[in-house]
Write a structure and sequence with these properties.
Belongs to the ABC transporter superfamily. Part of the ABC transporter complex HmuTUV involved in hemin import. Responsible for energy coupling to the transport system. This is ABC transporter ATP-binding protein. With about 280 residues, the protein is of the alpha/beta class. It has helices at about 40-50, 70-75, 95-100, 115-125, 140-155, 170-185, 200-205, 220-225, 230-235, 260-270, and strands spanning about 1-10, 15-25, 30-35, 55-60, 65, 80, 160-165, 190-195, 205-210, 215-220, 235-245, 250-255. The strands form three sheets. A six-stranded mixed beta sheet has the order 6-7-8-3-9-10, with helices on both faces. The protein has a four-stranded antiparallel beta sheet with strand order 2-1-4-5, with helices on one face. Strands 11-12 form a two-stranded antiparallel ribbon. Strand 9 and strand 10 form a beta hairpin. Helix 4 (about 115-125) runs antiparallel to helix 5. It is globular.
Length: about 280
């Protein structure tokens, strides 16, 4: 089953947010969408979710244009988690997670046994079961992110599109979240996650899509998409690489990559007389 984008273009106020973006995504894989701030990552995710119509091109789900799918069907098949997504009401955690089951429920109907089981699974997977009776205003930013991730997982959709799902999480919960996303993908869900942590993206993702200025500039397994040359050109950083004890390759953004002009300027500064 494939979620595809073909020739996507989107402009706003005379500025190109997305330019001729084409992408084919398959279920069962964790895809990391990375790039510098303003590269168009969140915009592309919104287009893929059907929340933002493109000016040019088309998004399709299993060959059917997304725009032709009824909203209810689309909501059952594509779950989305976006930065800044609020709850709107002072609900308890269990009630927030239960919102993920709305696409599966008839109007004004209660929770079915299947709904209750899905909610319990999502809360256990994200470690928020103990928060079930807490009110949303009492949650920390990290707890709130985990609850919102649980809400998205409770949909049990074919696709999960997540915008910075590990933001605000401490290191242990970041590892837990990435492990959970990878395990969820292994069970057959297609997951696309916007990530800024290149180290975790390279370690956990099956595929990395690199964006720059509204375009895709690299796409492939982490070792092919996150080359030294690409990281320097797109992010302006150099990295240290190594292997963990289990043989897993890793990279660490280590320093700003310098252009030839910057190197010359630094050399001039070091050799010039100091003013004092």
């Amino acid at each position: 089953m494939i979620l595809s984008a073909a020739g996507i273009g989107l402009d706003r106020d005379g500025r190109a947010l997305l330019s001729d973006v084409s992408l084919g995504l398959e279920r069962g894989r964790l895809v990391g969408l990375v790039g510098p701030n303003g590269a168009g990552k969140t915009t592309l995710l919104r287009v893929l979710a059907g929340l933002l119509p493109p000016r040019r091109g088309e998004v399709a789900l299993d060959g059917v244009p997304l725009a032709r799918l009824p909203r209810e069907a689309r909501a059952r098949r594509i779950a989305a988690l976006f930065q800044g997504a609020g709850v709107g009401w002072p609900l308890r955690v269990r009630e927030i997670v239960a919102l993920g089951r709305l696409p599966h429920r008839r109007a004004f109907s209660g929770l079915s046994p299947a709904d209750a089981a899905a909610i319990a699974r999502a809360m256990a997977a994200t470690g928020v079961t103990a928060l079930a009776e807490r009110g949303e205003p009492t949650l920390s930013s990290g707890e709130r992110m985990r609850v919102l991730l649980a809400r998205a997982l409770a949909v049990e959709a074919e696709w999960l599109l997540a915008d910075e799902p590990i933001t605000a999480l401490d290191p242990a919960h970041q590892l837990d979240a990435m492990t959970l996303l990878r395990a969820t993908a292994r069970k057959g869900t297609g997951i696309v996650a916007v990530l800024h942590d290149l180290t975790l993206a390279a370690r956990f993702c099956d595929r990395i899509v690199v964006m720059e200025a509204g375009r895709i500039v690299a796409d492939g397994p982490p070792d092919r998409a996150l080359t030294d040359a690409r990281l320097a050109a797109t992010f302006g950083v150099s990295v240290c690489r190594g292997r963990a004890a289990d043989g897993t390759a890793y990279l660490l953004p280590w320093d700003r990559a310098t252009t030839e002009d910057e190197t010359d300027a630094a050399s001039l500064y070091r050799t010039s007389p100091r003013p004092f």
